Amino acid sequence: MQLLESYITKYGKALPGDILKVDSFLNFQIDVELLDRLACDIYQHFKDKNINKILTVEASGIALSTLVAKYFNCKLVFAKKSKTLNMSDDFYSEKCFSFTHKTQNNLMVSKSFLTSEDNVLVVDDFLANGEACNSLLSIINQANAKLQGIAIAVEKAFQGAGDRFRSSGIDLYSLAIIESMNEGKIEFR
Amino acid sequence: MQLLESYITKYGKALPGDILKVDSFLNFQIDVELLDRLACDIYQHFKDKNINKILTVEASGIALSTLVAKYFNCKLVFAKKSKTLNMSDDFYSEKCFSFTHKTQNNLMVSKSFLTSEDNVLVVDDFLANGEACNSLLSIINQANAKLQGIAIAVEKAFQGAGDRFRSSGIDLYSLAIIESMNEGKIEFR
Fold first, then answer.
1. How many Å lie between the alpha carbon of A136 and the closest alpha carbon of chain B?
2. Would the CB atoms of A76 and B32 count as touching at under 8 Å?
């Protein structure tokens, strides 16, 4: 998507360690007008897939997912990384290593919020090594829900997970695909 | 707000330890259509205040804040609870004790995303003992930004923070105010 690529080129920074800093518009300060354009585009791609639930991970996936859920007029569920007092003990869980936090978490989704009736679209801001998505797919499997696709704002293709998902037959739709970030220069596919 | 109160009465559960469980529509599974109605109501209350930035805390405040920011057509910033690799070292921070996690965090906002030019509306899903809001107000102060008000979906009035904010002159707008939750019975103000 041209618009997102132009934002990444203009405001993004490729840092050492394969880190793309886009926190002025995507995942710390959030340009809601831009995200709404991304959400609309995601809706256009998946609108015939009978999706009734959006699934993401806290925290930075929530803003885009909220706007996507609004287009689909469906519920949004986010996987939690730690158990809270108001959470029941009846949940699906899967371990997940965070690239940006360098920590291991358990992603958790209450069993009552994901069932075999659900046609699920997974949405996230970033796809790098695919850890978060893999954990969400495991949780969807545990719930016997149906995965209809994955929508991502920024895919870092050189970390490989995107092409692995595509070759396994998953409908992965990434709005910007970064092929390389060598020496601070961002190249799109 | 009648609509939110009816959701709380119908789907909410008052649990021991002053815990209100509304995770089927507000902060785990999210009813985006409902949240959009709340966001519109918040916009109506604050629309003449020249607000140019929404500030919240990850994670459960992000969904409502995204929709509020869309009405104001302004940027959203969320305070982070832990430092990520893609975050610079130049941030405001304030400690914060989480009621639902029972953990102490440092809330952090990058200095570039909050400045003395900003007219800020703080938005969150819950107001209980006011820890998160107090920390956000401290961060707004550190940035010399201007606080225009606080918008909350559910205020637990019996925990006292709401009335403290009001008596200090802050424009606090809570869409549902719970006066008591004795023996599982939820009473609204």
1. 15
2. yes
State ipTM: 0.96
Q: What CA dihedral angle connects B104, B106, B107 and B108, to 10 degrees?
A: -160
A24 touches chain B (CB under 8 A): yes
The residue among A149, A157, A104, A102 whose CA lies nearest residue A129 is A157
B67, two tokens: 């929709």
User: How many Å separate Cα A174 from the centre of its chain?
Assistant: 9
Chain A residue with CA closest to B73: the answer is A33
Residues in contact with A124: Cβ distance below 8 Å, sequence separation at least 6, in sequence order: A56, A57, A61, A64, A65, A132, A133, A150, A151, A152, A153
The Cα of B83 is separated from the nearest Cα of chain A by a number of Å equal to: 7
Q: What percent of chain B has pLDDT over 90?
A: 87
Q: Running DSSP on this structure, what letter comes out for residue A24?
A: T
CB contact under 8 A, A73 and B29: no
Residue B172 is predicted with a pLDDT of 98
Q: pTM score, two decimals?
A: 0.96
SS3 assignment, position A20: strand
**Share above pLDDT 70 across residues of chain B, in percent, rounded to a whole number:** 100
Q: What is the mean pLDDT of chain A?
A: 95
Does residue A161 have a cis peptide bond before it, meaning omega lies within 30 degrees of 0?
Answer: no
* Phi, psi dihedrals of residue A169, rounded to the nearest 5°: 95, 5
Q: Coil, strand, or helix at residue A176?
A: strand
Q: Is A62 on the interface with B (CB under 8 A)?
A: yes
Q: Express as a percent the part of chain A with pLDDT over 90.
A: 87
